[in-house]
Design brief:
28% of the residues lie in helices and 22% in strands. By secondary structure, the chain is of the alpha+beta class.
Amino acid sequence: MPLHKLSLPTQAKLSLFWGKRGIGFLIFNCCLLFPFAAKALPGQTTDEVAAWIQANPTLSPQSGETLLVRKSDTAAQRFVFQASTLPPGRATPPLRTGIVRSERFEIFDLVNGVNA
């Protein structure tokens, strides 16, 4: 709907929110100035990652599973999650030990046709 066909109070509300100095402009600029950091396992310590895996209800590891979790309901349905201290793509020793450098998911579900 064009702005000129709206009632005056509606135009005032829209200009307050989307105007050059309105709240929408302020919120947009704040998002640019203060971006939210991504949370990921690589870069965390192995203790932090093991605690996250233990606390994650989706993974629900068995006792003794720390950085590798394997789930299998049947031979046709499998799930593997692994966090590793080795850098991806290289078999070189890590520069800093005790830091997770990569994570990997494997999902195989022959029943529902999923293989990733």
